[in-house]
């Protein structure tokens, strides 16, 4: 049986790879892929690639900051939901993956950080006479 942390890591890995596949499909083969150059479309995938090694290794720090990377794609998904038309199903898939990862990334970072003894340093109390 997987522990909570191991289960969250598996969910994060699968969800992130699925998001990478979905976004890659959208920017390389989607309905608007021919409007921009291949280089411009590939640039959309660069922020998703940056945290990938740390996410696959299970680094809690990477899971914490990768949540901020998801914000860019969350804006894309919400805009797409608003204007999608025939591609609404695709926009909802993207939004669902982002919602899942936006919840599970911080939970994994917190639980795994505690297992490793990581955390914010507490201020030491100042001595009374000084």
UniProtKB/TrEMBL annotation:
Pfam families: DUF2069 (PF09842). InterPro entries: DUF2069_membrane. It comes from the Bacteria. It comes from Shewanella jiangmenensis. Keywords: Membrane, Transmembrane, Transmembrane helix. This is DUF2069 domain-containing protein. The chain crosses the membrane at residues 12-30, 36-56, 63-83, 89-109.
